[in-house]
Structures are given as structure tokens and as C-alpha cells.
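Researcher: Here's the sequence for the chain we discussed earlier.
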Amino acid sequence: MHDINTNKTGHVSRPHPKRRILTLKPIHIRAIKALIHLVSLWFAALLIWNTLEGNFGADPIQGLSHFTGLAALNTLFITLAVSPFARWLKQGQLVKVRRVLGLYSFAWAVLHLAVYIALDLNFQWTLIADEIVSRPYLSLGAVCWLVLFALAITSSHKIQRTMGRYWQQLHNWVYLALILAPIHYLWSVKSGLIEPVIYLVVSIALLAMRYHTFRRWFAQFATAHPRS
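Model: Thanks. This is the structure I predict for it:
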């Protein structure tokens, strides 16, 4: 409840509502996107440098897989942190950077898969299906990759307009990738569980920020499918 102040003339004055320090404009969004490109390209250059210099240790394949996988996961986390951050700052324009972040997340996921197929399996295509079926963590990784692939190829504004309300329904599947990706990471490691557990906790926290969204979905589902 706001305090009400009375000035010397007897008029009632109310406190002014808090104003945003800065309202983001298109030029600010372009600058943020440029920064995203620069940071992403810097990490790509770092990947190349570490590969050429042999900085991935005794098992460079594992090092490459770890680097690209974490890059995909970190970028996915940042992508899904944009909306809560934009609401908190009351800067709706920020959501316009989600697409470029999501595409970079998928790009890192492509590199992650390429490392596995090219270096782990030596392009033995017949082994891919067997590996995915026999190793649960690879099954989860495959599901995450397919979700990101579907979101990437439907990310343009033209496709969004064409799909209408189905576009949002499809892109809600990103929440499945958000929870399965850190589980994929957790199941893939044999030691050093602290880091993947931290990623899992962050994933749950990002989902918890959307509590009201999930609650609304469950309410709509219950309304559409009443118990007999």
C-alpha cells in the first residue's frame, strides 16, 4: 500500500511509480545480438585453438565432446533465462535475442553430434541406431538433438506466421530438452558428478520460473479431459 503525503498547500501527493532506468530500443537489441555473435565466435575460435594446440588432454575426443556439449547446454540455459530476465527488468524487447541464442545452441549441438559420429564412431553409420538404443544417455541426447533441430528449422518469422498457434505448441518442447539435456550429461559421466548435478539444479530452477505457465497448462488439460 502506497504512502500518501500532504504538501504545505494541503494537496495530497502520491509517490511517483518507479520508472525503468532504460527502455531498450532496436539499436540496443542489435548491439546485444552483435555481442552474442562475437562471444559465440570467440568460443568457436577457442575450440579450434585448443584442438590444434592439443589442449584437450590425454583424451582429445572426450575433451571435444565435453566442450561442445557444455557449449550447447550453456547456450540453451541462457536462451531460456531471457524471458524471466526480460519480465524482471520489464524489458520485453529482450525476447528478440532468443532466436539467435537458440540457433547457436543448436549449432553447438550439431558439432557435439559431429564429434561423436566422426571421432567416436568413425562414420560407422550402422552403429548409430544400436548405440542410441543400447545406451540410455544417448537416447536422451538424441531426443534433445531432435527437439533442437525441430525448433531451429521452424525459428524464422515466416514459418512462425505460417504455423500459427501450432508454432508455440511445437516450441514448448524446448522444456523437454531443458530437463533431458542435463540428465544426458549426468548419465554420460563416470566420475565428477558435482558439475552435472549443478546443471540439473539450474535446469529445474529455470523450469520453476515457469510455474504459472505449467499450472495453466495442467488446468487447460484438466478442463479438456475431465474425469468420467
